[in-house]
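Structure tokens please, single chain.
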Amino acid sequence: MLAYLILSGILSTVGALIYILLLRRQLSATQSKFALLLIVLLSLATPFFVPELPNYTQMLSEGKVFYDNYTEWNVVDINDKALIDCYNKADDSKDMCDCEVIQKAKIVTFQYDPFYNFMVEYGKPLVYGTAIISSIFLLVFFIKIFFLFYLIKKSYSIEQHYNGMKYYLLYPNLRYELPLSAFSLFHNYVIWSPILDKLDEKEREAVLLHEITHLKHRDTWILMLLEFSKAIWWMLPAYYFLIKETKRIHEFVADEAAGRKLGDFRKYARLLLRFKEQQINKKSAHILSAMTGSLLKRRVLHLLNSSKKSRLQPIYFITQLILISGILWVTAFVSLPELQKQELKVKQYEVLQTNYSKTGESVFCKSCLQ
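Here you go.
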């Protein structure tokens, strides 16, 4: 489990770096959305499909004998019956040397190592602490889901249809105001406000289409996946980049759809600025949720540049996705054996340290420790 968590974190970090360095400036908003989703899914799923490392402790006396790291040729126990039997079966001098190496492989020596010592002493408290923090994030995740069900129950709803898609307009009956937003559970919902009904028909449709685009593209489920992943990745800077970038791209894609509905990206940008002005003047503090200063600026700039930005050709985009998949797979294939070896070494070090504390000896036979 620990190897999975570490490997998943490594893959998400590598994926985020690939996106930042190679893809971010090349892709359209829709393409960026697919690339980010692919990185998240591969980071979570790939560790399950990477072949596990063989048990090297069982292979020491069974597999190929390596001479490069063997220096103590003459240190053997000549009274060892297994060694004598091996000598008797040996056909030449090389086979006799193999007998000595095999016997030596059965001996282990305890040597103090600060890293392994730290892992043995503090590893379990760190794991328990991480598990508690992860459980808190999971609890927060489920509380948010519960709140959505509560919101549905406490809201006046109107069934609507748009291009064959059914959704419900929710007018919340709460003590506090909620921003315009959309989410999906068993049905599709748009949190609405009577203030938005005062817009002219074209603007109202554009604002509504922005939210419907979130519903059509399953943005709720993607964000739920990322929120759930926080229980695994909460300590990684890459996670916070991925979720922030995903939310930003979701807004860009929805803004593009709304701008096309109005027939003028600039007009929709002006509408966003008007909403922000009303928000500042306290006339409506709840019109839009994604209206923080930096994000609003990026949304407006994206709308103004939408007609200028070129879209990567599908064949090149697919090639990029295949490249991402390949890099993450190779990273997992290289990293997992090393992680498993380190995990095994920590366990071996713990056993040797325990026996060293009990006996004061530093050299042990493996069969004595098992």
